[in-house]
């Protein structure tokens, strides 16, 4: 049975189904401004087939109903998403049958509202965790705040100081091999001087100031 997946995800999601034809379904990212205006994406899922190998080397054709595939697209992503809970999770939902946007707006307004509320609750959790990480000892380090957390903040609390990405070019320390900024003079991990010329120049300038 053909089914429909409703998506409020402001990021792209690829649902893999190894051994099934088609082997994956791509959920496009919904533009943040469109999401704020109440828009959503619709993906239609048809019945699928797959091949199951047997112990004698043959393969048996297996049919997978679109309703089950659509349900897995939503359920698997929700279950594997960081910090999701029964009341706060990504905005994905499957519906049996084929539905257009107009049909969904007309016949499933409560489902849409509930989906938006649970996704916003999930975003609030992601932002709260990001606040804690930002205040931690490594808060200003690249990668501490994820792209997903920045997206969540842009939707519900766009005034966060960490909302813009921090990009620092990194390179391995020649002594301890830990990743350090390219502009570093001294490795923050093993304290090795990694740029002797720049270090000497800065040291001489400091002596002159004294």
Catalogue the unreliable spans.
none
Number of domains: 3
> Taking Cα atoms only, what radius of gyration do you get, to the nearest Å?
24 Å
- How many strand units? 10
Q: Tell me the overall shape.
A: flat
User: Strand-and-helix sequence, N→C?
Assistant: EEEEHEEEHEHHHEEH
Count of helical regions: 6
Span between termini: 80 Å
Structural class determined from secondary elements: alpha+beta
- Proportion in β-strands: 15-25%
Strands side by side in the biggest sheet: 5-1-8
> Percent of residues in helical segments?
25-40%
Key structural traits:
single chain; about 210 residues; alpha+beta; three-stranded antiparallel sheet; 6 helices; 10 strands; about 35% helix; flat
What is the element layout, followed by pairings?
Layout: E1 3-7, E2 13-16, E3 20-21, E4 24-27, H1 32-36, E5 41-45, E6 48-53, E7 59-64, H2 66-80, E8 92-96, H3 101-107, H4 109-135, H5 147-156, E9 170-172, E10 179-181, H6 196-209
Antiparallel strand pairs: 1-5, 1-8, 2-4, 3-6, 6-7, 9-10
């Amino acid at each position: 049975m053909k089914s429909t997946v409703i998506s409020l995800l402001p990021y792209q999601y690829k649902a893999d189904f190894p051994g099934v034809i088609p082997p994956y379904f791509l959920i496009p990212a919904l533009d943040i401004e469109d999401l704020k205006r109440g828009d959503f994406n619709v993906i239609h899922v048809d019945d699928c087939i797959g091949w199951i190998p047997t112990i004698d080397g043959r393969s048996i054709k297996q049919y997978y109903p679109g309703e089950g595939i659509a349900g897995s697209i939503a359920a698997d992503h929700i279950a594997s998403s960081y910090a999701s809970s029964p009341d706060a999770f990504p905005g994905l939902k499957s519906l049996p049958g084929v539905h257009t946007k107009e049909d969904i707006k007309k016949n499933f307004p409560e489902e849409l509202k509930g989906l938006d509320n649970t996704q916003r609750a999930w975003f609030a959790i992601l932002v709260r965790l990001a606040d804690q990480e930002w205040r931690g000892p490594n808060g200003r380090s690249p990668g501490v705040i994820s792209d997903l957390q920045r997206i969540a903040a842009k939707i519900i609390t766009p005034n966060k100081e960490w909302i813009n990405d921090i990009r620092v070019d990194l390179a391995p320390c020649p002594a301890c091999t830990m990743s350090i900024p390219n502009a570093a003079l001294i490795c923050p991990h093993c304290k090795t001087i990694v740029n002797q010329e720049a270090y000497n120049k800065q040291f001489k300038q400091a002596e002159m100031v004294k």
